[in-house]
Specification:
Layout lengths: L1 E10 L2 E11 L4 E5 L6 H8 L7 E6 L2 E2 L4 H7 E4 L11 H11 L4 H14 L15 H12 L6 E5 L7 H14 L4 E6 L6
Parallel strand pairs: 3-8, 6-7, 7-8
Antiparallel strand pairs: 1-2, 1-4, 4-5
Length: 194
Amino acid sequence: MLKIQGLHKKYGNYHALDGLDMELKDGALFGFVGPNGAGKTTTIKIMTGLLKPDRGTVELDGKDMLADTMGLRMRIGYVPDHFGLYDNLKVSEYMEFFAACYNLEGFEARKRARSLLEQVGLGERMDAFVDGLSRGMQQRLCLARALIHDPELLIMDEPTAGLDPRQRIAVRNLIAEIALQKIVIVSTHVVPDV
């Protein structure tokens, strides 16, 4: 279970978060909806350990996520709203690189990468270069990358931004499938995506 209590964050005089509380049970799919500037990305950056709150707590299964950022990184998968891709790598190399970041190597890493690439519809693109993929395919690759270590919590910031209608539907369907097994938080300002 994910539990956030009394989360506050100010930027100068601007109060981006003013006492945010939320609780999500395992297997939940949560749409974090609001206009640009509402504090969605700030909340996500706090949950992922990229930003410290002024006050408040974030717990996953009763453990303080803000106190142990290394442990936190092993328990969450994060798909940011903009991401860097390693253009000169093949899709399979990209996945194996990130698997190694989580101490998955060799046969186990290749097996996990292949399974995830199949799940996101990129199984036939393993030998393609990342920079040759369409935006939608790159988005699905980043989703596979975020799942490489089988996290308990998946956080996605604007996962359908810049995608055409068909790609949006494909990504939404993937998210719904993943949400059957994990806590998934999807941040967006596009209400129909939720």
